[in-house]
Amino acid sequence: MIKFNAIIARFEQKGEKTGWTYVTVPAAVACLIKPGVKKSFRVRGLLDQHKISGLALLPMGEGDFILTLKSSLKKVLEKKEGDPLYLELEEDIDFEILMPPDLELCLSEEQKLMDSFLIQPKSHQNYFINWLNAAKTEPTRVKRLTLIVMAMEKRLNYGEMIRAASAQERL
Q1: Same domain, yes or no, for 124 and 157?
Q2: Is the residue at 61 inside a domain?
Q3: Where, by residue number, does the polypeptide cross the bilayer (predicted)?
Q4: 20 to 30 A from 2, CA-CA: which of 98, 107, 118, 150?
């Protein structure tokens, strides 16, 4: 476990990251957690005394990463922007997002659908799965399953699927 302190910060204007609350994981620390890696990876450990797992470190350039803090996590930690945070982190080598059975069933109808899904980067597979699992009602879940299957037929990544669905809704 790599131990260090950080100050909680918030992006004011930073594109899609505007409004995000985060802590910076400097390049020197990130290199100790997972040497030589410049892309996103998952970590586990402690934030103050709160146990965490499966949280993503996002690259910010020059070897630095950020760890975003969702509002639910800030509430548990009782922390806000400007507060200090004690971190103990290591790579979460056990992290995985499992494919939901209904998605697996839909994609296995045709081998090309499953192949299209499996050639997606792992991060995009996770976007699809998390988006599907976030559906609060059965009709929403069915709609999302349909959109994912259609995206796999067209070999779209997650972002392309969302943009295509938004454009379709505007018609």
Answers
A1: yes
A2: yes
A3: none
A4: 98
Q: What is the pTM of this model?
A: 0.66
User: Tens of pLDDT along 52-85?
Assistant: 998 989 999 889 999 999 888 999 999 999 999 9
CA distances from 95 to 98, 142, 148, 161, 165 (A): 10, 27, 23, 25, 30
Distances in Å between the Cα of 58 and the Cα atoms of 87, 106, 107 are 16, 31, 29
Give domain status of residue 72, yes or no: yes
**Are 76 and 107 within one domain?**
no
- Based on the domain organization, do 107 and 139 belong to the same domain? yes
What domain range includes position 140?
101-170
Q: Which of 121, 137, 128 is nearest to 161 (CA)?
A: 128
The alpha carbon dihedral of 109, 132, 68, 15 has a sign of positive
Q: What is the pLDDT of residues 113-122, one digit of tens each?
A: 999 999 988 8
